[in-house]
Amino acid sequence: MRIRIIDAFADRPFVGNPAAVCLLDTDSWPDQCWMQQVAAEMNLAETAFAHPLPESADAHWALRWFTPAVEVDLCGHATLATAHALHSDRKAPNTVRFSSRSGILIAHTHPDSTITLDFPAAPVTEILTPGGLPEALSAKPDAVYGTGALGDLLAVFADETGVRTLAPDFTTLAQLARRVGIRGVIATAPASDSTSGYDFVSRFFAPAVGIPEDPVTGSAHTALGPYWSGRLGRDNLTGLQASARTGLVHTTVRGDRVDLTGHAITVVDGTLHHIV
């Protein structure tokens, strides 16, 4: 079985967020335990599995995502990577509809090779700072927001340096995430320089699901886009995820939907020999 590693939200190799992608030829899912084992073997933030759907379905492909530890409900960068694989290798149409645990997700591939994901927006609501969060992050955020069905906390800081210099205690953060029932914590702040080419920065920590720090998190931008558009008064923004690899995500808020746009590039194309 063919398996690829694709750098998503990246315009060159070895930046952005790598995802493994398996495009299945069957019309049903293989054993879930096997998919989880493949994801653990790849040891990337997410491994995506997709299989084709019949023409009568309301989507073209079914799509699932696994971290090395668990299956997740939504993943932006692995969806972008899957769309890239389909367009590059299967000559899929420019618009592909995916059926997922988060409903129908749509990916549009443009002539310049950028891909736009049409995802549900995650509206944010300010909440009291959970006990232990400042200690887990080793810094106190100015405000904390819930993200509804996305299942993350959005921790807002005053300046970009505050986000870039965060040094979380991942053991404590994982314990907090399990205690309050969240996937992870999105840390964010406005860009410090208006000429930098981006409007806000973020980092994403999810040690409870096996991802201490995610390089570039598309799903987090379904909350970041609406939050920063509300603060900055513009629907079209660019976010820089300030991980070691870095990556840019262009966001466009359209009511209860968010467009996430970026590039992808295949860096590994190989064969998975042990198949269920």
Fold blueprint:
Blueprint: E1 2-8, E2 17-23, H1 32-42, E3 46-52, E4 61-66, E5 71-72, H2 76-89, E6 95-100, E7 103-109, E8 115-120, E9 125-127, H3 133-137, E10 143-146, E11 152-156, H4 160-164, H5 170-180, E12 184-190, E13 200-206, E14 211-214, H6 221-232, E15 236-241, E16 247-254, E17 257-262, E18 264-271
Parallel strand pairs: 2-3, 4-6, 11-12, 13-15
Antiparallel strand pairs: 1-2, 1-18, 3-4, 4-5, 6-7, 7-8, 8-17, 9-10, 10-11, 12-13, 13-14, 15-16, 16-17
CATH superfamily of the largest domain: Diaminopimelate Epimerase, Chain A, domain 1
**How many structural domains in the coordinates?**
2
CATH topology of the largest domain: Diaminopimelate Epimerase, Chain A, domain 1
Q: Tally the helices.
A: 6
Counting DSSP E segments of at least 2 residues, the number of strands comes to 18
Low-confidence stretches: none
Radius of gyration: 18 Å
The main sheet comes to: 18 strands, mixed
- SSE ordering: EEHEEEHEEEEHEEHHEEEHEEEE
CATH architecture of the largest domain: Roll
Choose one word for the global shape: globular
Please report which band the strand proportion falls in: under 5%, 5-15%, 15-25%, 25-35%, 35-45% or over 45%. Answer: 35-45%
Query: Share of helix among residues?
Result: 10-25%
Overall pLDDT: 96
Give the distance, in angstroms, between the N- and C-terminal Cα atoms: 10 Å
Which secondary-structure class do the elements indicate? alpha+beta
- What is the CATH C level class of the largest domain, in words? Alpha Beta
